Fold this protein.
Amino acid sequence: MTTARRDTYTPETLLTVAVQVFIERGYDGTSMEHLSKAAGISKSSIYHHVTGKEELLRRAVSRALDELFGILDEEHARVGSAAGRLEYVVRRMVEVLMAELPYVTLLLRVRGNTDTERWALERRREFDHRVAALLKDAAAEGDVRADVEVRLATRLVFGMINSIVEWYRPDGPDGRSATGQREVVDAVARLVFGGLRKAS
């Protein structure tokens, strides 16, 4: 079985394994020995593709960050009213979180103990600020309520979305599927914008 795993081993499968080990053990609690055992390959085979576990971490969090920042470049995030763009971004954030669940989970758990973690935290803050700016613009346009401070509202919205990593399992016993994902996206949008939209 180990031989079969080595035959099918690729940098991508190594990254998948590394993310799972990082989530289970914590990045600081993961050694190269842990990674080699989980992947079923030698440490030297890992070093053939990456310089060490921090490079694996950077690749993993970069994947999550690239997907999140990619949302902001999509047409519906750039065109239209600020409230409409904000709702689009919120919906897409939930979709990305569920599609890239392990990678976003790892991103949300970095603590800032290494250069890569500090870089990831800074990028996360930049993304948060850009979403907060959309919320501020929507309030200025009169489409969302102005009686909740923007930074607080942004934190609450992110808190709701980020909590999904703690319970959502695409192949879990609750049978979540593509239909289930749509239900989650719609529920988040209803709850967020039901509270944010200005009463008519």
